[in-house]
Amino acid sequence: MREKMMLYIKRILDYIGMPDELPDGVKIALYFLFILLTAFILAEIIYRIGLFIVRRIPQMQKHTFLSKLAERSFLRKQIGIIPPLVMYAMLPIVFDTGNVLFKYIETAVWIYFIIMITRATTTIISSAGDAVFKKSKFHDRPIKGFIQVANIVIYIVMTILIISALTHKSPLYLIGGLGAFAAVLMLIAKDSIMGFVGGFLLLENDMIRIGDWIELPGKPINGTVFDISLTIVKVRNFDNTIATVPPYTLINESFLNWRGMSESGGRRIARGYTVKLDSIKPCDNALMEKAKKLDSDFARNIENSISNNSVPDTNAELFRMYALTYLKNHSMIRKDMLIMVRTLEPTENGLPIQFYCFTNTTTWEVYESIQAGIMEHFATAMPLFGLQPFQSTSARDTIVSGMIEANYPYEKIKAMLGEINDNDATCVQPRE
Fold this sequence. Notes:
The structure is a single chain. The chain is of the alpha+beta class. It folds into 4 domains: about 180 residues, no CATH class; about 60 residues, SH3 type barrels, CATH 2.30.30.60; about 120 residues, Alpha-Beta Plaits; about 35 residues. About 60% of the residues lie in helices and about 10% in strands. Strands 4-3-2-1-5 form a 5-stranded antiparallel β-sheet. A 3-stranded antiparallel β-sheet has the order 6-8-7. A hairpin with a 4-residue loop joins β2 and β3. The protein is elongated, with a radius of gyration of 40 Å. About 15% of the residues are buried.
């Protein structure tokens, strides 16, 4: 076979006008060049045939995985495996296997084959990851991190095989020596390894996904995650700044992930007012009759409480009953989630009353509008029940108080300020 191949090459050289007598080095170079040309021409022919077939597959563009392979030029990378295989098969035919040069060329061809097969394999994995990520049920999953792990493993295997080919040692022999290498690597690349491990733990435990709203206390990170890799997590803050954080920081420190709120479809409102203690009075029939006019459902609740002998004792309790009715009837409040109005532990400023409920949307601007409307409504409703929310005194209050202490007539105070309405009269009347 070798003689026939050499004769065939010689005929080609004679056909193109090469002289018969050539130095051995030139002949070897020409033979090797012939092998290279044959390998790459054959690969190009197969590539053209494959491209012709692929372009006529009607499902190519519709199938996500196949389209991602086409975007990454998978066919060209796959055909790259053919040249080293052809060369590896033809080298023993052209060269003497006992020649030192043959061993060097064979090693180079083997390394070339390893690199090409690695490129083709990583392309398949990356395309599969892109195809999975494009599906709606996986679009928020950190697929990129798993793809990176798989590619890193493949590159490590490739490196071991290349070193094995260069040193003519078994890959198992090299793996046995990785223990000492790992100890040195831990000292040199400690931060990179910690980032890798942290990123893997984040992905494995599903602690974070693309699209999650996360917040790190004490750090300028409060926004939406838009990219996750094994070494970095990118967050778009709500002021449109980009923040990056290493994965091991999220593992070592606590962070707040609002995914549960987003998935539930309801966002919590937990705000309230602090009521002055001296404004809390016993509840009488006149106040209840006045309160019934605020809302028909609230009026029915009062009647039910009277019939059940559970009449509100104070105006604060009556207001809590009204606030609870209002929240339960609010169109933007989730009825299937907790709704309550409660009092908290008294403070030096008074008795805190908290409104606790969940909106039926998690959109930030809509949520803030709902919350603001509820708080503003209760601010106007509280005086109707005789309740006064606590406020720190301002310069205006100090001036009015001083005038009252000096026994200024009420009409003069009203004329000077020009801001006190008739509803404020009871607050600024001179003391007897």
